[in-house]
Amino acid sequence: MVDKLAELTPRRFEGEVWRATRLNQDPIAFSYNGGRWAPPSSYQSVPVLYTSMERQGAIAEVSSWLSMLVPRPTKPIVVHRLLIRATDVVTLDARALTGLGVDFERFTERSYAAMGEEPPSRTQEIGAALSFLGIDGVIVPSARWRGSNLILFDNFDNQIEIDDQGSEQVDWLRFLDP
After folding, report:
1. Which of 33, 81, 110, 134 could make a disulfide contact with 165, Cβ separation 3.0–4.6 Å?
2. Pairing of strands 148-153, 137-141
3. φ/ψ bin of 116: left (φ > 0), alpha (ψ from -120 to 50), beta (otherwise)
4. Secondary element (H or E) of residue 118
5. Exposure of 153 by Cβ count < 10 A (0-12 exposed, 13-18 middle, 19+ buried)?
6. What is the mean predicted confidence (pLDDT) over 45-63?
7. Average pLDDT over residues 64-89
8. DSSP 35
9. If phi over 0 gives left and psi between -120 and 50 gives alpha, with beta otherwise, what is residue 24?
10. What pLDDT was estimated at residue 100?
11. Are 167 and 27 in contact (CB under 8 A)?
12. Are 33 and 64 in contact, with CB atoms under 8 Å apart?
């Protein structure tokens, strides 16, 4: 898999993306907790910043996670508009991911390893491999929205610039139940 990923041609990315967070959370702080594209730090540290190419995609991603919590949070979320400049970004569509061993029939499931669990899922292995290869980010299909997400990796030598362009509070519960 690493050999296949190393053959990809990274391209420069410059554009607007969206990130939804809880109140008072730094919108440009990378996460060490793991997720679909990064194994949890209890297994391997791959700091990531999850963003969406569309505002609604960012809301869908965080709303999906918040809706699983018990008790369900009721505070609004904050949607941030970020300008990203990254030197080495690759794109993996559904076909490419399937070729790398991702079961796209189960892609929307939360079948990736959580904190303290091993082994990582295939998507987590892909993210860890891209980070290892020094890739700044990957554009992949969203599991929660019909668009794409940009996942950034916090590597020591990355060439990423992130500028916060503004934010707004959103009642995420209304997004779930319009």
Report:
1. 81
2. antiparallel
3. left
4. none
5. buried
6. 95
7. 94
8. B
9. left
10. 97
11. yes
12. no
